[in-house]
What we know:
By secondary structure, the chain is an alpha/beta fold. Helix content is 32%, strand content 19%. The chain is elongated, with a radius of gyration of 21 Å.
Amino acid sequence: MKPLFDVERHELAAQLVPSYRATQIFKSVYQRWTGTFEEMTDLPKQARSELAAAWNLQAPRIHRRFDSTDGTRRYLVPLDDAELAETVFIPEVHRSTICISSQVGCALACTFCLTGKLGLKRHLTAGEIVGQVVAAQRDNFSLSDTDSRNSFNIVLMGMGEPLHNYDNVMKAIRILHDPEGLNMSMGRITLSTAGMLPALERLAAEPAIPNLAISLTGATNEKRNVLMPINRKYPIEQLLDAVRRFPIKHRQRVTFEYVLLKDVTDSPEDARALIRLLKGIPAKVNLIPLNEAEELEYSRPSDEAVNRFLDLLVEHNVSAFVRKNRGNDISAACGQLMKKWA
Ligand code: SAH
């Protein structure tokens, strides 16, 4: 059976007669959370049984859920080949966030990231990416709660480099964006990249573009080459030039994630280099004090060092804030996603 979460509405429509059945099905699945075709009483009986034989519309099972004391939830979502996708739900009073993975593992090998230690296992399909959102949404909201059940942001900041899995990621974004489906506006989706340049240029030319986040961390090529090996291929100047050319809507900003590593990226010198780099870019800096792990050779700077760094940026009119550390006790925090069952 074909996975329904893997198709765009127009693809489904092309396979159905009459084609508007695709819209009926999208509404049922994404808006009413209908779990079987049998329940779609707006479809004729014959059509329902034919569809049931061809399409799988089951939301992914949750293999394991880890609950943090701060309310963050980390999910292991099983895939058909026994690999696992990792998804994180971060509750917020106003608007929660669902953080999804685009790959199992990651090829980029950033030296401060645990996922980078895994290497790339494989790309996720569009259906597996959409399925993570569906699973996390249904586990955290109830269908009857019409006010809040669609009120979340999606960030592609889980495992993997989204632009390395370009076609599947963009397809998933289009499915999530579909007005007859989950209807997520592009302003509520953020794609984070370590800076895969040709794919970033491709993204810039898309008709609908999500918010952009760039993982920077090193503010000079010398440092970034070591921390994020992808920088050897696409150095900082080229990356920032591509960001300067990127279509940014009025009042919108590009987020720059900058991991603070003690004695490596946290000095006033580093802050000044970062300020120079971002000149002329509508930027918002997200400082992430390192989430430590045994496997990593770096440590987290003191709060004083973090605040000193933040103050320097703010003094130079760079919009910056320190990302709250959520879900640390369940290995759900930034850079900590890697298979772990214990
Ligand atoms: N590959 C994409 C998507 C992953 S986003 C990207 O790099 O943007 C995950 C974010 O967590 C990145 O900004 C990364 O810099 C950050 N990160 C990785 N390891 C971390 C760690 N140990 N502590 C804090 N942040 C980390």
